[in-house]
Amino acid sequence: MSPERLERINAMLDQRQPDLTVCMEGVHKNHNLAAVVRTADAVGVSDVHAVWKNETMRVSGGSAAGSQNWLDVHNYTNTKDAIDTLKQQGMQVLVTNLSASAVDFREIDYTQPTAIILGQEKFGASQQALDMADQDIIIPMVGMVQSLNVSVACSVVLYEAQRQRQAAGMYQQPRISQQRRQRILFEGGHP
Amino acid sequence: MSPERLERINAMLDQRQPDLTVCMEGVHKNHNLAAVVRTADAVGVSDVHAVWKNETMRVSGGSAAGSQNWLDVHNYTNTKDAIDTLKQQGMQVLVTNLSASAVDFREIDYTQPTAIILGQEKFGASQQALDMADQDIIIPMVGMVQSLNVSVACSVVLYEAQRQRQAAGMYQQPRISQQRRQRILFEGGHP
Ligand SMILES: C[S@@+](CC[C@H](N)C(=O)[O-])C[C@H]1O[C@@H](n2cnc3c(N)ncnc32)[C@H](O)[C@@H]1O
Ligand SMILES: C[S@@+](CC[C@H](N)C(=O)[O-])C[C@H]1O[C@@H](n2cnc3c(N)ncnc32)[C@H](O)[C@@H]1O
């Protein structure tokens, strides 16, 4: 690996936020999967979680999501396993949800360890996700359309998290472990 | 039109922001066009502008962009005409641009009449757009990807504008003309 490339990758790793993550629950259109992962990378998310409703989706969707091999994609076959894992990691679990009872997404403290659940394109998040999550959040809308595109909703929330974390100095010092850094440098250096 | 529907449309019109707009310069993938228009509607944008590089794109793209008939789509065949029009309307013209000299998008005052230019998926905004615009703006990225999806970039900027305008009370009283309201009610009532 050239010194410039090593420096570039280390600079990226210095900004990674291992305690900010996204969980796609049944998102299956490839352009949405790709856009979610791309935005996640851009704000420093290091891990993305995906619940696949069936094998066909997992295979085709997994490659769209994995096209950025600079973050780790974790796959699940059901929602319970995914949310259990996120909770074991000490995350507050937020589910984006078009409901009058959901709180405005800007009221959340994203400097806490946070996982954001995104629902399926047509049907939204499942009842199980809503039951298990700590809080549901909504992005205000004042037009005639009923909902935003899922990758758009994801990025609006992630950039609010980025804003808060930047203000709190969380991009100022490296936050991933040495061990993880070495693994990613090794894998990235030998693609 | 039922009284409920009339009320719903009037409530939407009360939130419209006629001096906040988006101009797509050569954006041509249908899912991006649709997502841009959907997000624009959601933050209260009343007019969207589109520069088409050729006739085929205009026809197929125009229908994707026009799928929401609650906002007006203005079509151009070249960038100069579009930006001239926006400037005649007294807009500050911002172009989203991946350049080290662009300013952070959060530094802009979006309570001013504002047009945001979005560049083409592959090649970004044209030199002409950069030359004619008042300012270029960038959304910070700290990962390995080079750029965001165009509809994602659009929505991150539009929701910053929505945040500022909400704080300034600009959604508190109707801002479109009576004449325009009557036209939209008439058209929307007779689709
Ligand atoms: C197209 S929407 C799903 C619409 C579905 N009919 C529903 O009612 O949930 C797909 C996903 O985008 C996200 N989303 C879209 N608009 C949102 C908003 N305004 N606030 C929060 N999340 C939103 C949610 O994750 C949602 O599950
Ligand atoms: C995929 S990008 C174009 C990439 C192109 N290679 C370039 O260098 O401009 C498509 C459009 O999305 C917008 N965009 C994407 N990422 C952006 C960012 N970080 N800041 C500002 N605009 C961005 C711009 O409008 C850009 O023209």
UniProtKB/TrEMBL annotation, chains A, B:
Give the GO terms filed under biological process for this record: tRNA guanine ribose methylation
Keyword Signal in record: no
| The EC number(s) this enzyme carries | 2.1.1.34
Q: What class of enzyme is it?
A: transferase
Keyword RNA-binding appears in the UniProt entry: yes
Residue limits of the tRNA/rRNA methyltransferase SpoU type domain?
Answer: 20-159
List the range of the whole protein covered here. 1 to 191 of 236
Annotated membrane-spanning segments are none
- Tell me which species this is from: Colwellia chukchiensis
Task: Print the keywords alphabetically.
Answer: Methyltransferase, RNA-binding, S-adenosyl-L-methionine, Transferase, tRNA processing, tRNA-binding
Question: To which protein family does this belong?
Answer: Belongs to the class IV-like SAM-binding methyltransferase superfamily. RNA methyltransferase TrmH family.
Q: Which branch of life, at top level?
A: Bacteria
The name under which this protein is listed is: tRNA (guanosine(18)-2'-O)-methyltransferase
- The UniProt record gives the binding positions of S-adenosyl-L-methionine as 96, 139, 148
Reactions listed under catalytic activity = guanosine(18) in tRNA + S-adenosyl-L-methionine = 2'-O-methylguanosine(18) in tRNA + S-adenosyl-L-homocysteine + H(+)
Query: What GO annotations for molecular function exist for this entry?
Result: tRNA (guanine(18)-2'-O)-methyltransferase activity; tRNA binding
